[in-house]
Specification:
Blueprint: E1 4-7, H1 23-34, E2 38-42, H2 47-54, E3 62-65, E4 70-73, E5 76-80, H3 85-95, E6 102-107, E7 110-113, H4 118-127, E8 132-134, E9 147-151, H5 157-167, E10 171-175, E11 180-185, H6 190-201, E12 208-212, H7 218-221, E13 226-230, H8 235-240, E14 243-245, H9 252-267
Parallel strand pairs: 1-2, 1-12, 2-3, 7-8, 12-13, 13-14
Antiparallel strand pairs: 3-4, 4-5, 6-7, 6-9, 9-11, 10-11
Helix pairs in contact: 1-9
C-alpha cells in the first residue's frame, strides 16, 4: 500500500512562480492523510513560499524546502542543513563576476537579496509569496544561509556548466527551473529529504510515490518505485522516472492522486 507521496511544486503542480493551487488538491491530500498516507511538498522554494501554496493543510503535511535542506511540519523545524560560511562568502564573490543575473539567499526565516531590481523583488515576494527583505549586503547572512539561488533570464542551462565546473567539489549545484539555479551544501538533495521521512516511518521505496519535472527532482525519483515526470519535462527527467504524468495545465498530478486514493480505499 502507498504510505508516502512526495511532489515537487513548480512545473509539476503549478506553473513556475505561481502560488495558487486548485483547491481539489487540498481536498484529496486531506483524504489521503486521513487514510494514513504521509504527504510532502518538496521544492527549491523557501519554506514560506511553500506555505503560500499549502497553508490550509500545513499542519498535516511535510514541507521539504530549499531542495531538502530544511524540513518542516506544522511550523516545527525538523531538520536544517546550512552552507558553510566561507563557502557562501566565496560563492557570492564569484557570482559578482557573472553579468545579468539576480542572486537570492534563503534562510529558514525567509529570502534575502541585495539586488536592486524591482522586477526581481516582485518575482520573489509577490509571485512566489516569499517572506524576507531586500538588504544592503548578503554576506551578512552567510551564517544562516541554507541555499543560494541564481536567477538568469537567458536560461539556467546557460550557466549550469560554468557553476558546476567551479563549485562541484564543494557545493551541490542544481537546475531547479527554467531560469533558476540552486546551490546547496554538499549532500543536500530532495532525495535525502525523502529518505529521512522514509526512515521516520519505516516506509520503503515500493510504498512511495514521487512527482517531479526538473533535474533537482531526480534524486527523489530514485527513492521511489513509482515515480512520475511531467510530460513537459526534459527527456533526461522522463528517463529517470517510471511514468509520465499529464501537465499542470490539466491537473495531471491531481488525477493520479485521486487514483491512489481509490486504490487505498479498495485495499482497505
Amino acid at each position: 500500500m502507498i504510505r508516502l507521496i512526495v511532489s515537487d511544486i513548480d512545473g509539476t503542480l503549478v506553473p513556475e512562480g505561481v502560488s495558487y493551487i486548485n483547491p481539489e488538491y487540498l481536498d484529496v491530500i486531506r483524504e489521503l492523510t486521513d487514510m494514513g498516507v504521509q504527504f510532502a511538498a518538496a521544492s527549491g522554494r523557501q519554506v514560506s513560499s511553500i506555505d503560500a501554496v499549502f497553508h490550509e493543510i500545513g499542519d498535516r503535511i511535510y514541507y521539504l524546502s530549499d531542495n531538502g535542506a530544511y524540513i518542516q511540519r506544522d511550523e516545527k523545524a525538523l531538520k536544517e542543513v546550512c552552507m558553510a560560511r566561507e563557502d557562501v562568502k566565496e560563492l557570492l564573490l564569484d557570482l559578482q563576476r557573472i553579468p545579468e543575473h539576480h542572486v537570492l539567499l534563503s534562510a529558514k526565516e525567509g529570502y534575502y537579496t541585495d539586488d536592486k531590481s524591482s522586477d526581481f523583488h516582485n518575482l520573489v515576494f509577490e509571485q512566489y509569496k516569499g517572506v524576507g527583505s531586500v538588504v544592503d549586503k548578503l554576506e551578512a547572512y552567510a551564517d544562516a544561509c541554507i541555499k543560494v539561488s541564481l536567477y538568469y533570464e537567458k536560461g539556467a542551462m546557460m550557466l549550469y556548466d560554468l557553476l558546476d565546473k567551479r563549485w562541484k567539489d564543494r557545493l551541490q549545484i542544481y537546475i531547479s527551473g527554467a531560469r533558476w539555479i540552486d546551490i546547496n551544501a554538499q549532500g543536500v538533495s530532495k532525495g535525502n529529504a525523502v529518505h529521512w521521512i522514509q526512515k521516520q516511518y519505516g516506509i520503503t521505496p515500493e510504498e512511495t510515490v514521487v512527482f517531479g519535472d526538473n533535474f533537482n527532482d531526480i534524486s527523489m525519483m530514485e527513492r521511489s518505485k513509482r515515480s512520475y515526470a511531467s510530460v513537459l519535462s526534459h527527456p533526461d527527467i522522463k528517463k529517470a522516472a517510471d511514468y509520465e504524468v499529464a501537465s499542470y495545465e490539466v491537473d495531471g498530478v491531481l488525477q493520479v492522486l485521486k487514483q491512489i486514493a481509490e486504490e487505498i480505499r479498495n485495499e482497505k
